[in-house]
Write a structure and sequence with these properties.
Layout (H helix, E strand, L loop, with lengths): L5 E4 L2 E4 L14 H12 L8 H12 L2
Antiparallel strand pairs: 1-2
């Protein structure tokens, strides 16, 4: 499965497009993740593409 964009409404995450997904998933809130990275490293002077970062992590994890 890849990245699914969703909105949070009335206590429920709703995908912006129809998706096939398992009944149970894990969510990563990108906005908070990027902020946490910046707090930890303190060196990010320009925006990062979190999706590209995730692709690299996934590629390295499969090695």
């Amino acid at each position: 499965m890849g990245i699914i964009e969703a909105v949070y409404e009335n206590g429920v995450f709703r995908p912006l497009k129809k998706v096939k997904a398992p009944k149970k998933v894990k969510l990563m809130i990108i906005k908070d993740f990027e902020r946490d990275l910046e707090e930890v490293f303190g060196i990010l002077s320009e925006g990062i593409d979190v999706r590209e970062l995730r692709k690299e992590w996934d590629r390295n994890a499969s090695c």
